[in-house]
Amino acid sequence: MKLDDTTDALLVIDVQNDFCPGGALAVPDGDRIVPLVNGLTRRFAHAVFTQDWHTPGHASFATTHRKSPYDTTSLAYGPQVLWPDHCVQGTRGAEFHPALDAARAELVVRKGFRPGIDSYSAFFENDQATRTGLSGYLRDRGFRHTYLCGLALDFCVKWSALDAVREGFTATVIEDVCRAIDLNGSLAAARKEMTTAGVALVQSASLFAA
Ligand code: VGL
Ligand code: ZN
Q1: Is the pTM of this model over 0.90?
Q2: Catalytic: which of 118, 156, 158, 178?
């Protein structure tokens, strides 16, 4: 596979303390990808990072509904998994992992800051209608191909990849530079959904093979 510096953008999804071991919504081995992400940001000419950025008492938090984490509830836009409180604006948990080289980010997209709407995707909030502005940004800059890595593969990375395709970009998920939550088979389901939608799943080594 050959990368093109003018049309290809790396999307680094939610590599934040709360998604790493010790964090509020820790993804198993989430921190293990950090050196690999740093390697990718040096190989790609352009990178956009996302940051899950919730208000206190956010509608996606179980505590807000006096329910248990990982229960499902119904919000105005449909079913919503309820999460432990995580990535609250301005907290340490919401910061990027300290070893992540975020200096290479040309744009940081914050998402999930509307108190009543969750936002897994870097492109649309979970109502599937409210835009983050990322499509317009990528188009304005002439990018056509997105390459995704980060946390979590079966939630924010998946939703971002599906929306990238829906918005007319190609999407390639760099699987070994992701980790999954894997809630009730969500990882296998995510792989299937992405493949069906035309998202490519690759290993990082194949990107740079001669
Ligand atoms: C995420 C659940 C809730 C993610 C964010 O980054 O995958 N998952 N908020
Ligand atoms: Zn979240």
Answers
A1: yes
A2: 156
Q: Is 156 known to be catalytic?
A: yes
| 16, 52 contact by CB (below 8 A) | yes
**CA 19 to ligand 1: nearest atom:** 6
Predicted confidence at residue 70, as pLDDT, reads: 95
How much is the pLDDT for 210? 62
CB 156 near ligand 1, within 6 Å: yes
Backbone angles phi, psi at 121, to 5 degrees: -80, 150
Distance set, CA 210 to CA 2, 3, 40, 45, 119 (Å): 8, 11, 16, 18, 37
Which listed ligand is nearest to 30 at the C-alpha?
A: 1
Ligand 2 mean position to 42 CA, how many Å? 27
Cα distance between residue 110 and residue 53, in whole Å: 6
Neighbours of ion ligand 2 (CB under 5 A): 52
* Amino acid residing at 65: H
Query: Would you call 65 helix, strand, or coil by DSSP?
Result: helix
